[in-house]
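>> received
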Amino acid sequence: MNAPFSGLRAFPAQWLRPTVEFLLASQRVSGEIPWFDGGHTDPWDHTEAAMGLSVAGAVHAAERAYTWLAQTQLEDGSWWACYRDGCPDPSVQRRETNYVAYVATGVWHHFQITQDQQFLERLFPTVVRALDFVLRYQGPDGEIDWAIDPTGAPLGDALMTGCSSIYKSLECGILIEDYLAAPPSGWRDARARLGQALRERPDRFDRTWESKSRYAMDWFYPILAGVVRGPAAQKRLDQRWHEFVEPGIGCRCENHQPWATVAESCELVLALLAAGRREQAVELFSWLVQWRDADGAWWTGYQFEESVLWPLEKPTWTAGAVLLAIDALTGHTAGSDLFLGSALEDDE
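>> returned
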């Protein structure tokens, strides 16, 4: 490895400084964080990058990112799935529920790190509108539709990965609500029903298209989000480890494609830590260091049959995922354990 790590016990702030500078340089004056210079912005990946800034101590920049979300939120509580230069991209006419919900995760994460109650109070209305929008599309069996068209009609199916992300966002929304002693919402019941669907009703997902189980995120996101824990998490990891993990390289995006991605590998690091597999998590992250460029940014991924970086992009959300993974490995911030378990006392 070309990084000063010894079991990843200490946060390598100096080594990560170029990565942080890359994120800061990528952020627009408005607070928006596009995928890369000239690229688009979506609310989920924008939030992931903002979380990376929080980890790095770039508090003002992170708060500008959340202010951008608050200022661009639609009246119904949602955001469009794609923005360019701060404006909705007219070619992408949908709102994705897991994109909308993720602001709750980001806001709670930032508060965990800063303990700034004024920030939490300021962003809470944005979180409320976002989660209430998402839950309008929860079905009677607990699953939540993946996206909504311009008229507000659901597109008619649910995603295991997207719903797992929403499950975590609902946890964070509940924790914010509890901390601020806000009037109770229906979020707890909705989260319980969503968790039950994720664990017990696989038939409620991928109903109208080919199964997404070929994607690694469907494999490990239920662990990352706290849906699957304990022995069930161990079993889930073991069942498909050799299907998705390429030794010395990282985690494949799809089981049948010779392509590993840095962000998904970092998220798998978080899932491994959540399952108590620190040694595996450290080893997996050690393979990823080779995919950092000289400017501190991180390549999207590597096609290992053709031995090429692909695509030739260095997304801001990949840098955010790296910072989140290193924070979880080192316990650097008070938000480092966000994805390592649930903080809800009544969690099943």
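>> The two ends are 40 Å apart (CA to CA).
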